[in-house]
Each structure stands twice: as structure tokens, then as C-alpha cells.
Specification:
alpha+beta, 4-stranded mixed sheet, 4-stranded antiparallel sheet, 16 helices
């Protein structure tokens, strides 16, 4: 009996040691699993930031040079809904699983208080090592990291895509139940916004000159602006009455700084043609030297409609980029603008559209030089009322709205809800406006300055 008792005692003495070793192994396995899950969470967070922040133009340039990672990044970002859904699903799964393991671990070590300890520790670890640190690195190196993670993320996306589709169906169903609709037709990447943001940042940092920024933004903005915004108003159009004597018509053509002039009959709304100064000169020359031989007789027999071209009319709502393409396709430089009722509103030229990109274009025949905006000693700017708000903003880097009016005078009338009297002062939109000169019902000159102090806003 003694040997048997001794053997049992020895076996019983070894049990606590084995149980302690098993518990220790489980502890280390749980810690390793939590660490692995945190690494996976950091991978998902960095991948999401890199793939959404990376410039598609830079990725395209790298892909064109043979970078397979950049090509994979471009491919995986084409379906943004599936990409973001897969990353969010994977990230949430590993975060929840790591929190559950941490809770079980700390509860076993510290009892009921382990839940609170697990919550604090997990939050700190996830926030620092799985969110802030990887996303900070990804923001600083988006293209490089996007090219690196694109292929593994593509595999994850393919694996999780069935679950992502189920989640999307559930989300859309719930939103529909509340009368809402998930918008899935927008693009995650907007080329226009990306270029605009890059130019703005470059200008603020001094890497891009103001003139270069304005030209590029002007070209990008043509599709968002209409003919109505840049046309010359009909009150400013120089026109020719077809019933005037030939001598008067020729004198008007020679005295005009414009090479193309509309021709009307009866009233200015009734435009029947457009003449080119070169065609007029050619017709008079041919009549004087080829047919009659007497220049005076050639002038008297000149018929303006014989050299007039058919007028080209365009709607006032036409986008500027579309109108420029029409000008190029027609090999035309001049169009008359009409409203929805067919009434004449103004005229627009190819030069007007180009000036929206490169700024004012002047030559030796221009009678009105570009307005040079220089501050007066008081800090005010003396502005022509007919100056467009866009040109003023462009010249002085201001931000006056041009939604309700095209010209500075129009903005003042809109805000005042009346035609101000000469000398009247207004303060709105962060600027002070003073009517310096008024002609009939038109504001001719304004004095404007940004409001520098709160007490200025009390004026008006």
C-alpha cells in the first residue's frame, strides 16, 4: 500500500503545475491574438486612408511607367462602394474580436473589474496603434502605401464582397423604410475638386503663382458658367442701321474699334446681318478699281447687305465650354445672344471666352484699357459698376457672390432691393459699398473696401 500511496501523492503533486502551464500558454496565445488583430486593424485603417487620399493622376503616371502596384490601386478604387464596404467590414470585425478577447483576458485575471480595465486598454491601443498612427503615416505617403496594399486589399474585397452586398441591401432597405435613399451615383474622386484643391494649396504655399492659378481655374470653370455671365449687354453693342447712307456706314465702320458689327433694320432688336470690316474694304476696293474705276462712285453705290453675313444666334444659357467648341467647329468668332423669347440680350465673342482663362486681352485698337485696380489712400477701390463680380474677385482675391448678379452694380441693386442714390453707402457681405456716380438708372461708379472693423458694419 505504501508504494501505491506514494505514487498517487506524486501524481497529485504534479497536477497544479500542469494546470498553471496550460493557463500560462492560453494567456500568451490570447495576447498574441490581440496583437495580431491590432496589426490587422492598423492595416485596414492605413489602407482606407491611402486608397482614398492617393492622387489618381499620380497613380496613373506611375502605372504608365510600369508600376504594377499603382495599376492595382487604380483598379481596386474603381468600385468605391465595394472597396470601402470591405475595408469597414474587415476593420470592424477585427476591432470587435480584439475587444472581446481583451475583455475575456482581463476578466480572468482581475475578475469583474477586468471589464473596465479591458475597455480602457483596448481603447488606448486601438486609438494609437490601429487608427491615429497608421492613418497619419498613410496621409504622408498615400501613393506609395496605396501601391503596396492594393493587391492584398483587392483579395480581401473579393472574399468579403458577398457579405458587403448583404450589408448594402440591409442598409438600403432600412433607409427606404424611413423614406431615405442612399446615393450611389456619386464618385469618390472628383478630378475638378482635386485639381482645384491642389492649385489652392500650391498658391497658399507659394509654389503656384496667382496668375497661373487663375488661368487654370478659369479653364476648369468654363463648364459651370453660361454665356449670359460674360456677354456684352445689348446697350453696349455698337450696331449699324442698314438704312443709313453708304458714306455714314463706311465712316462708322472705319471709326469703330471692332472688326465685326451687327446690322439692323428698323429697330435694334431686328438684326439682319453681321459685317466684317475686311469684307467692306474688299467690296469697296473691287467696286472702285475693277468695275467703275471711280472711288467716289464706288462709295455711293455700296450696299451693306451685299457683304453682310447671316447672323449667328445662341441661347443665353449655353455653357461657355460648349459655346467655345461651337465657335471652333463653325470657325466663327462672334455670336448674338438671345433669351427664351428670342429677344436680343447681347453678344459674345471667342475673345470673351478666352479672357475668362487668360484675363483681359487688349490691342492697339481698344478704346477702353483694362481697369487697373489700385487702392486709394483711404483703402477703397474705385470700381466701374459694369465690372463683373468674377473679374473683381479674380483681381483682388475677394469672394463676393455672383449667384444673383453678374456685375458689381447688379449686386448692389440686388442687396439694396432698390436703385441707390448717388452718395448712398451700404455695408454687406463684409464689404463697404458707396455709390460714387449714377447715370439715369445705372450705377456707373462705386467705391468699395473690405470692412476692417466691426463698427464699420453699422453704416448704411
Amino acid at each position: 500500500m505504501t508504494p501505491l500511496l506514494s505514487q498517487a501523492a506524486a501524481q497529485s503533486a504534479t497536477l497544479p503545475s500542469d494546470a498553471g502551464a496550460g493557463a500560462s500558454n492560453a494567456l500568451w496565445i490570447t495576447c498574441a491574438a490581440i496583437l495580431l488583430l491590432l496589426v490587422m486593424s492598423a492595416f485596414f485603417s492605413a489602407s482606407e486612408t491611402a486608397l482614398t487620399a492617393a492622387s489618381r493622376s499620380k497613380l496613373r503616371a506611375r502605372a504608365d511607367k510600369g508600376d504594377a502596384g499603382a495599376e492595382a490601386a487604380l483598379s481596386v478604387t474603381r468600385d468605391t462602394d465595394r472597396l470601402i464596404g470591405a475595408i469597414l467590414l474587415g476593420n470592424n470585425v477585427v476591432n470587435i474580436l480584439s475587444a472581446s478577447l481583451a475583455t475575456a483576458l482581463f476578466t480572468g485575471l482581475f475578475g469583474a473589474s477586468g471589464v473596465a480595465i479591458a475597455t480602457v486598454v483596448t481603447t488606448v491601443l486601438v486609438l494609437i496603434f490601429a487608427e491615429v498612427m497608421p492613418k497619419s503615416y498613410a496621409i504622408g505617403n498615400p501613393e506609395n502605401l496605396a501601391a503596396t496594399v492594393a493587391r492584398p486589399i483587392s483579395g480581401v474585397t473579393k472574399i468579403l464582397s458577398p457579405l458587403v452586398m448583404v450589408v448594402q441591401v440591409i442598409v438600403r432597405s432600412l433607409l427606404s423604410a424611413f423614406g431615405l435613399r442612399a446615393g450611389n451615383d456619386g464618385s469618390l474622386f472628383s478630378v475638378h475638386e482635386e485639381i482645384t484643391g491642389a492649385l489652392t494649396i500650391g498658391h497658399e504655399s507659394g509654389a503656384v503663382q496667382k496668375e497661373d492659378r487663375d488661368r487654370l481655374l478659369g479653364a476648369l470653370d468654363l463648364g459651370n458658367r453660361s454665356v449670359e455671365e460674360v456677354m456684352k449687354h445689348r446697350s453696349e453693342i455698337q450696331m449699324i442701321d442698314a438704312d443709313l447712307p453708304p458714306e455714314t456706314i463706311l465712316e462708322t465702320v472705319l471709326a469703330s474699334p471692332h472688326t465685326r458689327l451687327p446690322v439692323y433694320r428698323g429697330e435694334r432688336e431686328n438684326v439682319i446681318g453681321v459685317i466684317h470690316a475686311k469684307d467692306v474694304l474688299r467690296a469697296v476696293h473691287n467696286s472702285a478699281y475693277d468695275d467703275i474705276g471711280d472711288p467716289a462712285e464706288a462709295v455711293r453705290d455700296f450696299e451693306v447687305m451685299a457683304v453682310a453675313m447671316k447672323p449667328y444666334f445662341v441661347p443665353e444659357t449655353t455653357a461657355l465650354d460648349e459655346q467655345m467648341r461651337e465657335f471652333l467647329a463653325r470657325r466663327a468668332h462672334f455670336a448674338l445672344v438671345i433669351d427664351e423669347y428670342g429677344s436680343l440680350r447681347g453678344l459674345i465673342t471667342l475673345e470673351d471666352i478666352l479672357e475668362e482663362i487668360v484675363g483681359e486681352i487688349a490691342d492697339e485698337h481698344d478704346t477702353e484699357a483694362a481697369q487697373e485696380l489700385k487702392p486709394l489712400p483711404s483703402g477703397d477701390y474705385l470700381i466701374d459698376g459694369a465690372m463683373t463680380i468674377r473679374d473683381l474677385n479674380r483681381a483682388l482675391d475677394w469672394n463676393l457672390p455672383d449667384d444673383e448678379a453678374n456685375t458689381v452694380a447688379g449686386l448692389v441693386i440686388h442687396m439694396a432691393q432698390s436703385i441707390p442714390a448717388q452718395g448712398q453707402v451700404f455695408s454687406f457681405l463684409g464689404y463697404r459699398f458707396e455709390v460714387v456716380q449714377r447715370r439715369d438708372n445705372r450705377i456707373a461708379k462705386l467705391r468699395i473696401r473690405p470692412l476692417a472693423a466691426p463698427e464699420d458694419a453699422a453704416e448704411g
